[in-house]
Amino acid sequence: MSAVSKDAKRMTTHTLKRMKDAGEKITMLTAYDYSMATIIDDAGIDVILVGDSASNVMAGHETTLPITLDQMIYHASSVIRGVSKALVVVDLPFGTYQGNSEKALSSAIRIMKESGAHSVKLEGGLEIIDSVKRIVSAGVPVMGHLGLTPQSIYKFGTYTVRAREEEEAKKLIEDATALEEAGVFGIVMEKIPAALATKVTKNVSIPTIGIGAGSGTDGQVLVSHDLFGITKQFNPRFLRRYLDLYSDMKNAVESYIKDVKSSDFPNSKEQY
Q1: Does residue 193 surpass a pLDDT of 70?
Q2: 29 and 164 housed in the same domain
């Protein structure tokens, strides 16, 4: 656990705020299943995101759009069973909150009640502020997400860096302020200029978590499968791979195949 929160059994939104105030960086990784969540939680991660990126990583879809609320609840439930310390944030999937604050609240309540998660995350700023306010007013902690918002990929048409231009940068700052005023406990900022992310971080009193947004944010998040090198094709500038499990696992399977084919496995010590 972190220096600020080592005496606490579980991370909370309040703990994250204390960490920002103390200048302590916040760590966040994704998980979609019990086994991965257990490993990451045991390592001492502060926040686990059950991301709608499960649509890409676990199901092989090109975008995050196809994943359903039921599927997100399934993944979140699996993660929760493997976590004893980290704060668990769950993405509300596409179509469950945009344009209808009542539906947004219903979706958030389902995630909280059926999975046991600790909070939800929504993409967007002023355009989804009514949904944010309604969910927060019901007592559900909400994290925001600005910059590159993958659920809007067909609107953007590209995964390139967002808010390079002055007008979009100004809107992002306004969105961050509006989200803070609406009651979110933190904001993920994805693939925006580092200088802008630093400016937003200084302008708001709530924690900011960056992914491709430089080192000036209050914390960082990565997709675990990317960090571990399980994925192979995804190679953005912001990604640091700490392992190459794709190669290691492939080599292990090849060795297993060889040993079975040659009757080397199982040997006399590996049978009853």
Answers
A1: yes
A2: yes
Helix (H) or strand (E) holding 137: helix 129-137
Structure tokens at 3: 């220096």
* Helix, coil or strand: residue 123: coil
- Residue 2 within any structural domain of the chain: no
Residue located via tokens 């090849």:
254
Q: What is the CATH number of the domain that holds 28?
A: 3.20.20.60
Q: What would the pLDDT profile of 136-159 be if each residue is shown by its tens digit?
A: 999 999 999 999 998 887 777 777
Active site residue 190: yes
Residue 21 gets the label, from left (phi > 0), alpha (psi -120 to 50) or beta, of: alpha
What is the C-alpha separation between 37 and 29, in angstroms, rounded?
Answer: 9
Indicate if the pLDDT at residue 203 is higher than 80.
yes
One-letter amino acid at 219 equals G
Distance of CA 191 to the CA centre of its chain: 14
Residue 197 and residue 218 in contact, taking contact as beta carbons nearer than 8 Å: no
What beta strand segments (E) does 31-135 contain?
Answer: 47-50, 87-91, 119-121
Instruction: Summarize pLDDT for 163-178 with one digit per residue, the tens.
Output: 999 999 999 999 999 9
Distance CA 47, CA 96 (A): 23
- Specify whether the CB–CB gap between 122 and 188 falls below 8 A: no
Are 49 and 64 in contact by the 8 Å Cβ rule? The answer is: no
Instruction: Spot the catalytic one: 62, 166, 190, 270.
Output: 190
Token pair of 100, please?
A: 């209808």
Query: What is the per-residue pLDDT across 49-95, written as a single tens digit (0 to 9) for each?
Result: 999 999 999 999 999 999 999 999 999 999 999 999 999 999 999 99
Q: What are residue 165's phi and psi, to 5 degrees?
A: -80, 150
201 with 250, same domain: the answer is no
Q: Identify whether residues 97 and 172 lie together within a single domain.
A: yes
